[in-house]
Design brief:
It is built from 9 helices and 11 strands. The protein is α/β, with parallel strands linked by helices.
Length: 310
């Protein structure tokens, strides 16, 4: 069975934006779609509507609904009406985050999609927990997001860490596959200190913005010229700058934690702020997790070969 894109849908405040994004993501990476809703409780025999996945009982989150059969039927009707190949499952558990994390690990998910936290709710508060505990990348979709015909510009929040490099590889492969422009963004602190610079006098005199731009030019050069790649080195508070830049992006990718060569921070608190406030979907790679980009990379290599032979 192929690895799925899993969408976690809040049954209390249904928002179709994560489902719509999940449909597009599954199409792009050629994966099956699985929409999951979480209801309260421990194991019991399967119910009549939807598939039942049981989880051990414990202290149940009071925000969880006792019965989600109605929303399962609604999701199935939506998928059928839009001719989407996918299924909806009803998970039983003590918390939405735990249930989604478990099913993502069990099914070896390519991507887990949830809605952004706009107000309190089981999947609102769940997004922040999943960003750091998920076994796969997590896409956080703003409430009310609407799918576009084409991804035109994909951004990546870059610092020189394994997580950010993995996010860059995934973003570049996706840009190649869909024909989008890639924007590599590294936010420089407004109040840098001397230890942030290299030992070279030019680094000290030029300052962190100049140093970072030079570093990013080297990083971008390694990507080749299959798609347009630009660099952006704004000066300011990282989370606020990334949220503002997200207004002009169709998708933003980033690592969940890391400190760059200039200690331009993309730390856990930053990823939480960005996913909560971004104006476009944000794909976050938790520490130690890399987006499964085998299919995307294959297309990237094919595109490069075609260009080289032209």
């Amino acid at each position: 069975m192929s690895r799925p894109v899993i969408v976690g849908l809040d049954p209390r405040r249904p928002d179709w934006a994560p489902v719509d994004f999940g449909v597009e993501a599954a199409r792009i990476v050629n994966a099956r779609l699985l929409v999951a809703v979480v209801q309260a409780g421990g194991p019991e025999p399967p119910l009549t509507a939807g598939q039942m996945v049981a989880f051990a009982a414990a202290q149940v989150d009071p925000d969880l609904e006792p019965d989600c059969r109605a929303i399962v039927a609604e999701v199935e009707a939506k998928l059928h009406a839009e001719s989407v190949q996918g299924e909806c499952v009803r998970l039983r558990g003590t918390s939405a985050a735990r249930a989604l994390q478990d099913v993502s690990e069990r099914d070896d998910a390519i991507l887990l999609v949830v809605g952004a936290r706009r107000r309190r709710g089981p999947l609102g508060s769940t997004a922040a927990a999943l960003v750091h505990g998920s076994p796969c990348p997590v896409a956080v979709v703003p409430r009310g997001w609407e799918a576009r015909r084409q991804l035109r510009e994909i951004g990546v929040g870059y610092v020189d860490t394994p997580e950010a490099r993995a996010a860059l590889r995934a973003a570049h492969a996706l840009a190649v596959r869909v024909g989008a422009t890639l924007r590599v963004i590294s936010v420089v602190s407004e109040t840098p200190t001397m230890y942030q610079f290299g030992t070279d006098l030019e680094d000290v005199v030029g300052g962190p913005k100049v140093w970072t731009e030079r570093h990013l030019r080297g990083v971008v050069a390694e990507l080749g010229d299959v798609v347009p790649v630009t660099i952006d080195v704004p000066v300011g508070e990282p989370a606020l700058m990334l949220v503002e830049i997200s207004r002009r992006l169709d998708l933003l990718t980033m690592g969940a934690r890391g400190y760059g060569p200039l200690r331009a921070v993309l730390a856990g608190s930053v990823s939480r702020q960005v996913t909560a406030g971004a104006h476009c979907p944000v794909v976050v790679l938790p520490r130690g997790v890399e987006l499964a980009t085998e299919a995307l990379m294959t297309d990237a290599r094919s595109a490069t070969s075609v260009q080289a032979s032209a």
